[in-house]
């Protein structure tokens, strides 16, 4: 048994947990990780000992608080979130709508933060959840500012339709992305769920690279994107400044 | 090289990252994990490949977004947070002060969420951060409802003084904990930093066990704990109800 394979087995055990299956029995864990029951058991107990996994009263495994604590040190996770939070709060307070913060990971958008009141329009996203880049407002911002090879990869594959308004024509999407770069914000009007509209703007790091995006998601029926855009762009600028200040302080 | 030791080496690499040192060079990583440079290098690259670690432009390692995503499935992390968020927002909006959500891990409190405006009183806590149970409001709530052996362990060891007002006398602390259980909330008046006062209340799961605590932290000088307590307790009840509903839906 090589060292490489043990590392990959440990990681496979973590990989077994998904938003749809956050709690697993030992046999589910073994099957999903592709391990024998005794191997899965031995490794899982090591992970429990360290706190990467925990067991419930029913014996099922779930992700442990200790892993969550270590993971909170991810610069693109809670570190970004901490820089952004006061600005997200401001956006929420003036709108009482969904406020989202996201980063790009490959061809997907990962939601790092979501603030929503009880009365806000329902959205499909959750913190730690993923979505394709071409449908959401934050995704379009991140795709518009992604390296050329990422854009080409996205535009050369079939574009999934989440609603009847999702842009699935690559030529049209290319035009929209050019608009996003020119205007400084993206509008997704019913492209994820027909009743929701999002306005998103880019967050830059100290070097000017787009590292994240922030959006406001409102009910589509009487939304005024051009009125929301300055609000979202101001928040994005504030977060960019705060992030640059933190990076400077750390260095 | 036994399998156990490989798992522990992988976990030691994650353990090397701390809030004070979220970015590490390879040699720092090897030294902190107690591994040789070649071993640390090989394992770190495996972790990078999976996404548990990422490398910056300067070659330094940091915790990766993929680990953060998996860790977001921790029931006591983001799952609790999602149930609590609307109530935390309400508390924040009526107060514009610090709102905190925390759980107990051994003899420490771990902050799962913190919402704060720019004008709120500065606090020492951060999301994913830890603190001793006896000083903070949330900690006192969690200690008051902890198993007897946890309370005895806490009360039999020296109690660290964070400020001149921290309760370090175990007899006095025992009385305060009885008050917390009787009144349904805890007040930490300058016991972490002298200028801050927190009011905290317990969050129960469907079985009535205290699984978390919520607090409001305000400036100590003109705070009225008895006026804040109903607000915090109402939020705690709302979160408890939301949490019980989620657990029921999952089962």
UniProtKB/TrEMBL annotation, chains A, B:
Keywords: DNA-binding, Transcription, Transcription regulation. It comes from the Bacteria. Residues 66-245 form the IclR-ED domain. Residues 4-65 form the HTH iclR-type domain. GO terms for molecular function: DNA binding; DNA-binding transcription factor activity. GO terms for biological process: negative regulation of DNA-templated transcription. InterPro entries: GAF-like_dom_sf, HTH_MetabolicPath_Reg, Tscrpt_reg_IclR_C, Tscrpt_reg_IclR_N, WH-like_DNA-bd_sf, WH_DNA-bd_sf. This is Transcriptional regulator, IclR family. It comes from Kibdelosporangium aridum.
